[in-house]
């Protein structure tokens, strides 16, 4: 069984290209997940499974640009794995097409663990929670994870992460969606530094995110002092590149991520090879 949630879209969800911003999709997934866990099965009566969990990992694949529409976008969600103290949910974001098919914009998976916020410790799933999740179970063979490259702390990739009070949830942790926003800000600053002083007449390029994988290690808390994000280029292709990032508090790793970006032609709405100078700049800092 799969749960279908109709998620309203907001005009503020759009980015400069007129697409739903990659960060906003993760907000949609959170809305769909909470809706599913609050409305089904024995565990829905307490709400603990919907609200008393933390995200351990997100894997998000962006398939097609989603533009603003007055009709809601649909999100299917289901469970792909059940373990003693964690479970994995999968999602598909889509619109139904007139011919009976569907236009899919995104597929994703999220690993979650029940959490006792009073003691700041994970816990095991209860029998009632397992019963709720079992009804949505569809096993799915996921591709093996590729190890991240070693962290590079170089000034060109440094970004101070300032936590806003509005970033924090009711449990005092920075919400999992906000990490995507921090990573986006760090990535944009790295690109800005790389593209400075390009030769006169160099065409401007657009980029879109194709894949984002984020691991959550230690909760980020609200405080006046910034945390440190470090980003570096780990792969350069003919039309794409991979940027890896970490968010740290001194030597403590709080989160790590891998993001695949693609050079994008706004006229054709397809990937495109960039002018060679962009690849040269990326190759110059390749890990």
Automatic annotation (TrEMBL):
PANTHER family the record matches: 4-HYDROXYBENZOYL-COA THIOESTERASE FAMILY MEMBER (PTHR31793), LONG-CHAIN ACYL-COA THIOESTERASE FADM (PTHR31793:SF24)
Protein name: Acyl-CoA thioester hydrolase
Upper classification of the organism: Bacteria, Bacillati, Actinomycetota, Actinomycetes, Propionibacteriales
Superkingdom classification of source: Bacteria
CDD domains recorded: 4HBT
Annotated keywords: Hydrolase
UniProt EC number: 3.1.2.-
GO molecular function, one term: fatty acyl-CoA hydrolase activity
Native source species: Nocardioides panaciterrulae
């Amino acid at each position: 069984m799969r749960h279908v949630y109709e998620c309203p879209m907001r005009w503020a969800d759009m980015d400069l290209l007129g697409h739903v911003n990659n960060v906003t999709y993760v907000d949609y997934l959170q809305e769909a997940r909470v809706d599913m866990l609050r409305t089904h099965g024995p565990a829905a009566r307490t709400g603990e499974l919907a609200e008393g969990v933390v995200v351990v990992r997100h894997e998000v694949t962006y398939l097609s640009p989603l533009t603003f529409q007055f009709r809601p976008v649909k999100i299917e969600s289901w469970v792909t794995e059940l373990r003693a103290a964690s479970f994995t949910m999968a999602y598909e974001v889509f619109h139904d097409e007139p011919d009976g098919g569907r236009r899919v914009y995104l597929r994703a998976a999220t690993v979650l663990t029940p959490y006792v916020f009073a003691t700041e410790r994970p816990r095991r799933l209860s029998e009632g929670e397992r019963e709720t999740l079992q009804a949505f179970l569809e096993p799915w063979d996921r591709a093996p994870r590729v190890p991240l490259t070693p962290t590079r702390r170089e000034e060109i990739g440094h970004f101070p992460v300032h936590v806003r009070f509005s970033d924090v949830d009711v449990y005092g942790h920075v919400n999992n969606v906000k990490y995507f926003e921090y990573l986006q800000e760090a990535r944009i600053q790295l690109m800005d530094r790389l593209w400075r002083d390009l030769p006169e007449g160099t065409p401007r390029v657009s980029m879109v995110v194709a894949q984002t994988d984020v691991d959550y290690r230690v909760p980020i808390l609200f405080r006046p002092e910034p945390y440190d994000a470090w980003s570096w280029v780990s792969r350069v292709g003919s039309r794409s590149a991979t940027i890896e990032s970490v968010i740290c508090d001194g030597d403590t790793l709080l989160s790590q991520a891998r993001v695949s970006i693609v050079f994008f032609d706004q006229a054709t709405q397809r990937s495109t090879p960039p002018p060679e100078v962009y690849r040269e700049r990326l190759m110059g800092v390749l890990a």
